[in-house]
Amino acid sequence: MTQSTAFQGLFGSRIAGNRAAITWLATFPNATPPDPALITWPPNHFTTPAACRLAMPQPSEIAQLDAIPAVPCPCGLARRAFTDRGDYPATVHLTQITRDAAVHYHRLQTEVYVVLECQPGAAIELNGELHPVRPLTAILIPPGVRHRGVGEMTVLIHCTPKFDPLDEFFD
After folding, report:
1. Would you state the pLDDT for residue 35?
2. All domains of the chain, ordered by start, with CATH?
3. What is the Cα gyration radius of the chain?
4. Residue 42 near residue 51, CB atoms below 8 Å
5. Phi and psi angles of residue 72, each rounded to the nearest 5 degrees, phi first
6. What is the model's pLDDT at position 46?
7. Cα–Cα dist 101/103, whole Å
8. For residue 17, what are the CA distances in angstroms to 31, 33, 39?
9. DSSP string spanning 134-164?
10. Residue 154 reports pLDDT greater than 90
11. What's the gap between Cα 44 and its chain centre?
12. Cα-based torsion angle of the residue sequence 148, 153, 158, 164 in order, rounded to the nearest 10 degrees
């Protein structure tokens, strides 16, 4: 039985000639397939089968990070974008890390820090170990990793799932 015949058995005649549906199913073989008539290829990104749905595209959004009001955080001051966007699974933060940044961790959130500016000797502390940083250093911080910036720096943070202040913990 060919792959196309197997898919046709799952979906009947609706799969015939729907190259996008066949490609989607081959790419996500363990996923529950959506209605083939609703699949477009290629998806906007390759993260999950949900990325392949053909709903009307959501409107784009532009955030001027330095115009967003800063709020206190364990690191210093954060300006968080896309917090209210239900269709986007993350937030983006422009954060000014201060000298008194507190060691903290998240149980659910993964963060990627990208250092934009920093003082000489700046570092990131990960589980008690210091790692020197310089502009354009990227740091992946999985859930459970105790972390803080050491020294003053400006970082761009991509946080997924969306930032939640209830997911900040201190020892």
Report:
1. 53
2. 3-52 (no CATH), 65-167 (2.60.120.10)
3. 21
4. no
5. -65, 145
6. 47
7. 7
8. 21, 17, 13
9. -TT-EEEE-TT--EEEESSEEEEEEEES---
10. yes
11. 14
12. 50
- Residue 142: both structure tokens together: 């999985």
Find, among 156, 79, 74, the residue nearest to 111 by Cα. Answer: 156
Find the largest Cα–Cα distance for the chain: 65
Establish whether the linkage from the previous residue to 42 is cis, with ω within 30° of 0: yes
pLDDT tens track for 16-64: 455 555 554 555 555 555 555 555 545 444 445 555 555 567 889 999 9
* CA-closest candidate to residue 150, choices 164, 129, 171: 129
The number of CA neighbours under 13 Å toward the Cβ of 70 is 13
CA distances (Å), 96 to each of 76, 132, 147, in order?
6, 17, 15
Tokens (6 digits) for 100 = 């008194």
- Cα dihedral angle (23, 25, 30, 34), rounded to 10 degrees? 140
